[in-house]
Amino acid sequence: MSKSLLVADDSVTIQKAVGIVFAGEGYRVTAASDGEEALRLVREERPDVILADVSMPSPDGYQLCQALRGDPGLKDVPVLLLTGPSSPYDEARGLAAGADGALAKPFDSQTLLARVRELVEGVTPAPLPLSYPRAVPTPAPPPAPVLRPAPVAPPAAPIRRLVPPPLPPPGHPLRAGMVRPRPTPVAPPAVWAPAPPLPPPPPDSIEVAPPSPIDGGEAALRLAISQASREVVERIAWEVVPQLAEVIIREHVERLVNERQKR
Q: Which of 229, 224, 258 lies closest to 241 in space, CA to CA?
């Protein structure tokens, strides 16, 4: 069975908009342009719900609602007041008139349909899906760690230094048996200093010893080399070395000959 709806508004646009919203929803829509016509249609048709504009010609929506609440046969008909930018909803007057709610124009079709079904059918409208993503609650940050003071180490025990007891006074019997060790003297560190170079002797003062028959004149040669300057050493080398080499070669040849004869 279809439901009946009465829209009381002096705007033809609102009347047609309401008719379009409820077309195919199982509601029969009746329109009125002022309060007197709306009151007459309510008494004749007894609609299931009334939409009344608060600023329509007399009686306005508040007065129409109050008149219905005073009629025992019509006091239970739900009334939804329609408000506009120039006529905002007066909550005090709406409560005094016994209105069941208010809806601002221009209204959303789904909102109007849900409000009417809620008043007539007792159907609570389901929440409409959001056109934007639902905000995800930000998790609370973890509690800050409790900083505990680092354990303080107990103070170190003072270092006790052992102080030797004082020596008994002279003449005391114990002093005779005590021998105090004498400190070992420490020699001062040696400081190295280069020895001053010896002045070379004059070339004429060098005496070369005659070669010994035992070592072949090697001792004399070493002494001459250690005492002579470079020029003197070169002069001596040219004179002595050939003779020394000849002596060494001769001795080596004689030793080889003797060894061969022994074989």
A: 224
